[in-house]
Structures are given as C-alpha cells and as structure tokens.
Amino acid sequence: MKTMNKALVGLAVQAALLSAPLMAQEQSAKKETNTLEKIEVTAQKRTQSIQEVPISIAALSGERLQAIFSAGDDVQALANRIPGLYAESSNGRVAPRFYIRGLGNSDFDLAASQPVSIIMDDVVMENVILKSFPLFDVQRVEVIRGPQGSLFGRNTTAGIVKFDTAKPGQSFDAFVKAAGGTYGTMNFEGAVGNAINDEWSFRLSGLSQNRDDWVANDFTGEEDAMGGHHENAGRLQLLYENNDFSALLNLHTRDLDGTASIFRANAVSTGSNDLNSSYDRDRVSYDKGDNNFQKYRSHGASLKLEKGFDGFSLTSITAYETADGRGKADVDGGVAGVGPGLIPFDAVTEDQLNDLKQFTQELRVASEGTRGYDWQFGAFFFDSSFGVTSIDGLYGASTVYHDNYTWAVFGQGSYDLSEQLSLTGGLRYTYDEKDFRVGAQNVGGACLFLDFNGDGITECQIQDYDDINVDDGQLSWELALNYNLTNSTSLFSRLASGFRAQTIQGRNVAFEGAPTTADAETITSFEVGMKSDLLDNTLRLNVALFYYEIDDIQISAIGGEAQGNSLLNADSGEGKGFEIDLEYLATDNLTLTAGYGYSDTELQDDDQTVAPCGGAGQCTVLDPMVNGQALIDGNPFPQSPKQIVNFTARYAVPMGDDGEFFVFTDWAFQGKTNLFLYDAVEFRTKDNFEGGLRIGYENFSHDFTVALFGRNITDEDNIKGAVDFNNNTVFVNEPRIVGVEFKMNFY
C-alpha cells in the first residue's frame, strides 16, 4: 500500500496544477456563437449530465458513432476510439475482448470471464457471444472507466461499456440508411416508431450487414473462399405509459453467418515483429478448417417496469437471453510440412456454444432527488447455463458445462454538503457461485501422435474429472466527492473497490488436461479529475488521473509450448495513468475532438511463470527463464496498449439555404502492446493506427445525407493478435473499405 499512497498524493498534486491555468483560460475566454450540447448519461442508473457525474466517463453518439460503423464493422470498431478503451478478438465477429485502462482478459474460450462488463439497454451481457450483439439504432455509447462494483456488481473491475438504443415515443420517427462499398459490402439499417394510441407506442429497428468472401485459399485453389459475413439483426420495442407508470418490452434477435478470424502462419519472422514477405492480406493456404466458417444465433427479451410514487420510483428489469452456434478455424494458419514457413503439425479446432440461457432480474427503488440528496437501493439476481464443445482434429470432441448463479443487494446515496460540494457513497454485497462438470470426452478422437504404450497407436486418455463448485461473497464500495469550482468547472475524486468473481476454465479437458480455476480478484482504485466547459461552452475538457491495485489478479496462460488454456492467480497487478477528452467548436464551421489515454500496467509476482512459444528458436523471449518457463514478474498486462490517441475533425460549409457540404475525418493510434503474458520480440505491436473519412452533403429541409466514406483509408496492416504454440501465426485488422452511404430521416 506504500506505493499506492505515494501515487495518490502525486495524482492529487497533478490535478491541482492542471486546474489553475484552465480556470484562468475560462475567465479570459471570448464569446462564441455556437455552444456544445449537453450530454446526458445513465452511468449511475439515473439520468445526469456527463459533467456532473464524479466518475471518468466518455460518450459517443451522433456522427462520430455513425462514422465508425459506416463500413459495417462489428463492436470491435470501438477500439482506440475512446481514451483507455481497447477491443480485439481471435473469434471473428463474435466473442470480443474488451480492455479499459489496460485491464481485460485475453482468454479466447467461449466460457471466458472478463473484467469489462457490457450493458445493453440496462441488461448485463455476460457471455462473450452476447457481448458481440451488433449495434444499430443506437442512441449513445458510454464508457465508464474504473471499477463499478457498487451499482453493477462483480466482473466490472475494469469498467463498463454501456449501450442505449433509441426508444419508442408518441411522435412519428423513422430513418433508412443504405451503404455499398468495396469487397461487395452492402449494409442496410432502418427504424420506425410511432404512437399506437395515447398510451402505447412502438419502435421497430433492423440491420443487415453483408460482405462477400474475398480471401483466396491457395491450397484448395478456391478464389474468394472466406473473409465475408452476413449479419442480420432486429429489435421490436413496445412502450406503455399511463400517468406515473411505464412498461417497456424489448424483443431482439441476431443471425450471423460469417468468417472466424483468419490466421496467417509465420507472418512475422523470428527476431522481428514486422509482417514479412509470406504475408498476403488477400491469400492464405489452408488444408483444414472448412474455410474458417462461423455461425451464431441469439435471441432475447427484456421487460422494464417503472412506477412513480410520492418522492420515489420503483424499477423492475427482467431479461432472458439465449444463444448457440459454432465456428471452425485452421489455427496453425497453413499446412504442416508445406508452409508458409515451418509448421510442425496441423492444428484445427471447432468450438460450439450449446444452449446458452441467461436470466436476470433487478429491482430498484430510487428517490426523486429534489431536496439536495439522492438515494437508491435494490437487489439483483443472475442465473446462466451453457455448454462448450471443443473439437480438435486429433483429440476429437469434448463437452463441458458451466452454471453460474449470482445475487446481490446494493445501495447508493449522494448528498449536497454545500452548494459546491457533494458526496456520493455506495455499497454492494454480491454472492457468486459457479458449477462445472465434464460431459463426453474425445469423441471420435484418435490421438495417434501420443505413443504411451509403445505400439504407435494410442487412444485418447479419457479421465474421470470430479465436478467443480466454487463460491464467494464480496463487499464492494465507493466514495466520491464532486466540487463545483465554477459554474462550468468541477473537480472530483473517487475511491472504489470491486471484484471479479472466481472462474473455472475447462478447455484443457479437450486436450486431456485438467480444468483449472482462479480465485476472485479484488481491486482498489483511486482517481481524481476535472470536468470543464470553457470558452463560453465551446471547449469541453475532461481530465482524469488514476491508480489501481489488484490483489490475486486473474490471468490466462494461453498457448505456448504447453498448448494450454489455464487460469492462474498472480499475486497482484498495478495500473496507473490518465485520460484526456477534448471537444472544441473552433469556428461555426469547424468542430474538433481529441483524446489521449496513457495506461502503465505491471504484473507483480516473483515466482509466476508461463510456458513461452512452442518450438525451439521460434520466438525471442526477453524474460528470465526458469526451467524452460518465462518469468513474467514486471511485465505489462497482455493486450494493454500503453497509449491510445484519437482525433476527429468536421468542417462544413453552407450550400444554398437548406444544406451544407461537410468533410469528417477520424483517426486512432495504438501504442506499444504486448500480446501475451510473457515478453517476446515477435509478439508485441507498436504504432498501429487507422483513419476514416466521410465527404458528403446534408440537406436540412428534406433531412437526408449522402456521403462517400472510407474506413482504414490508408489500408494499414495492423497485427491484432497471435497464436504461438505451433509457429509465429498472427491475425490482422480489416482492409480498407471505400463506399457510398445514403440516409434519410422521416418525422
């Protein structure tokens, strides 16, 4: 704790130093004709201005959000678009892995637990498949940084990404959007909402994202064999409102037929982390994997009931989610004995998610907040079950089953100590229980390369694993202060705790290994910050500095020479850094935004080792080695960008009396990032960046927009992740997509 105390003092001093010049700048600002719009968020489960909440929050909406997804990208497109937020996946358009302030989980399994919680329309999406539900008709995205254990519970040690979709209303509201681009990209999105009568209204939204296959398979001679996707999703919402009572029913569905991640064997050479001459974005050579197909479906429903009483309101949110599907991949990225490069053996896996069911129930009572204080308290219940079948080309098919049961009670209150100073405190007790059992093992497997009996032929070794049950109860808390320095500048500080529940990982069963478990991790986080609207509300500048310590941090030892996927607890982890969010109306025609996030993370465990890359001399390990294992003490968290920088600019000029011509560009930069727990020259990235561009015309009288767009306009080849057990395999970002988009609103 000594290091934490020193860091807290340092952060507080830096925050104070930052505030002085900014206050002077505000006092000397000149009047501008335009002002920034007020951004409202629900980070504390009630509607508040983003500038009033004593938490580090960033929000995306409007044109910035639309531009990111104009080429039909999945939720991973949010990576690096907000300071401190990163996302990646080795499972194509499903199972995204999110990281906030460097903290996440690089486990690729369908049963993986993550410290970043995804909340969609007030419902937690716990399983990694549910986290990938496509985004459409979205009103706002909120990224809430730091542990959120008081109001949102376990598995929020890093923070929350919260999606709120557009809701029904009594007025007619509709839009249609169509886009076409390179690689056969065709995207359609639309919504319509209106009153049914004085009490009932509806909103129907839909999405169709399509791209042709464009990657050739040289081994089979197939052109355009993989790389495409067909994603369809829909949402129907019915809203009933009568005086002080409302009921919102949300029905949603999703159907994906696409391509899993495309793995590229030996695309980096030993001693280098640059893509080499064997890499060709448009071509691979696969003998397995059935061209890396991917098929998933999910359906869900939620019912939100709100009843107002004298001085308080009662809210109930009931939700049920289901999902299933499968994907297959040639994970060695080539052909054993053929290449590209040295591939010691073929490796193909298929993963199946079987009958996922998730039920959640939340009850919450909240005050109206009209007397200088706010309060809310409630209870939460969570129950989920699913099976995961892993099919390997040699070991056959093995199935494991996971059950998770959670309940919690929570409360939070805010009190105005004076006209300038308010205090917020929260408590939550959570009980979490997980059960694990093994079903069929190694069905259809030969395991011929395992010669235990000396006769050259060995059947898979079926083992009798006991059922596993783990449970834990934890108290999470927070304490925050918010001080209004002026009418447009506030300072805040927040001390908070949280925990990620104990975890069970059974993937090793498919490879004749034992399941592994990890105890719950707990985090203590401190942050200070400033939120300000300066220059007569034309410049918004928000700054936060943070420090956190994690006890018993959960880590996933993946791949390596052991070819495993095992859970471990390291002694501790540490993270420190800061974020800056800026929005500036420079002129009546020019709007600028910029963000910078710095995260310095470190694993702390004197004795913790993991298996490094497989194969003699395959990669250049920089860590100390102990009995063939890499000592990871002092290493950064895996997939934790040290720096994230983003920038947007929009310039518009009037055209006639009712329109404008505009140019919008957005850029994101990702600093040095280690891909694994161990440190190796080949498995680190640096200086990745992507840019986007929109050039178009907007007509205000007829409310339509037509624009040319480009994503990854410089066609960067950025390494997103790697597979290290067989050869130096990597997977990369999406190619440049250029197209045209048309959108029209109706009122």
From TrEMBL:
Membrane topology annotation: Multi-pass membrane protein
Principal place of residence: membrane
Pfam families according to UniProt: Plug, TonB_dep_Rec_b-barrel
Transmembrane stretches, start-end: none
Superkingdom of origin: Bacteria
Signal peptide: 1-24
Residue span, TonB-dependent receptor-like beta-barrel domain: 260-712
Keywords per UniProt: Cell outer membrane, Ion transport, Iron, Iron transport, Membrane, Receptor, Signal, TonB box, Transmembrane, Transmembrane beta strand, Transport
Record Gene3D superfamilies: TonB-dependent receptor, beta-barrel domain
Domain TonB-dependent receptor plug: 50-160
Places the protein is found: Cell outer membrane
Family in the record: Belongs to the TonB-dependent receptor family.
Entry protein name: TonB-dependent receptor
Organism field: Bowmanella yangjiangensis
